[in-house]
Amino acid sequence: MEKTKQRRLDITFESDVSWKPKGRSRGQEENKEKKGGESKGRIWEFIAIASVPLVLVLGNSMLVPILPDMQERLGISQFQSSLVITLFSVTAGLVIPISGYLSDRFSRKGIMIPSLIIYGAAGVLAGFGAVWNSYTTIIIARAIQGLGAAGTAPIAMALAGDLYKEGTESKALGLTEASNGTGKVVSPIIGSLLALIVWYAAFFAFPIFCALSLLAIMFLIKEPEKTKEPMKLGEYLRSIGKVLKEKGRWLITSFIAGSVSLFVLFGVLFYLSDILEVAPYNIDGVMKGLVLAIPLLGLVATSYTTGSLIKKNGTVMRWLINIGLMIMTVALGLCIFLYNKNIYLFIGLLTLSSIGTGLLLPCLNTMITGSVKREQRGMITSIYNSLRFLGVAAGPPLFGWMMEKSHQMVFITVSTMAFITLGLVFFLVKPKGKVGG
């Protein structure tokens, strides 16, 4: 892409040699102005795209701190309150592939804009459900929010693949993953602070964030025009089947790796959140949110740095993916023996595991979005994100069940999963040269 731009600029310069001021040529001045304008425009595009995964996380994770209050105020069980989170994730995970197809059939913004509207409006409905003390209204609203969420972050990933190429694409995808992680860091803290006003304030605050993201997508992103007529459904499904037949071995392995990494991340955070509230730590509220932010900050910093550096280099990505999974395996394996020895060491190991996840995810995102043509990108990235959502949804309940059996069982399970995933990736995911080239 950069070479093409340079060639166009060179042609412009060579075709106008009659005017030659002292110092910089007019062509050089124009080049500088164009690059400066493009750089500023690209920064705003990055911000707009990154706002979508941030809003997606805020709409879910901000509610985690208020679940105990919800149980008390509405007179519901712990299982019923957990459905506020789980039902949202399951609904989104099931609907994401449909949103992916529609974004390929029509346009990315054509799906993202109404999805953000639905997402925000359903948040307002959930807020009124809380005011009315109606658990049924809240649950219905959360399911509707899941429908809206399905057309947000997964489609933003495909949009980044449409807009950018080469290293810029990997940087944009790394930024979206970092934005996702940032949302996980700040949302429990924001949720706890809002609960100081009134316990259901987070329901009404979220649509404000959603509206800002909606405006950013509407006015800061110019989607590339489609150059081909959309395929009919039958032809489209055959093309997806062909992609999976040709690249399924490493694509499906990459899907599994992304799902496992987020299952482990959310499950471990759920575990940490639970043990911090009891003796001998007795940490709750905003302070607990700050402690939970430590592993997530490791994820955010690593994701952004990884996305900025890999530049679609397949060899580098393969090394980082395997190193990330090795770090996760070792860190989680050590937790089997050290989880109850020293809280500082334990949080350090969990942060190390999150750093491994931060090495892994931007590489997977770049490989998957760059593996297919624009016409199938929405569906492929949606399948990937659907499995990620289901991994997130499965984490807390399965970790809760394992914690009832044995705390060591938790870390034996997750370290084994990381090790098996490492084996699959090592033998089946072997990108070389320039990914997507």
From TrEMBL:
Residues 45-433 form the Major facilitator superfamily (MFS) profile domain. It is a multi-pass membrane protein. This is Bacillibactin exporter. It is found in: Cell membrane. InterPro entries: MFS, MFS_dom, MFS_Efflux_Transporters. Keywords: Cell membrane, Membrane, Transmembrane, Transmembrane helix. The chain crosses the membrane at residues 43-67, 79-99, 111-132, 197-221, 250-273, 285-307, 319-339, 345-364, 385-403, 409-429.
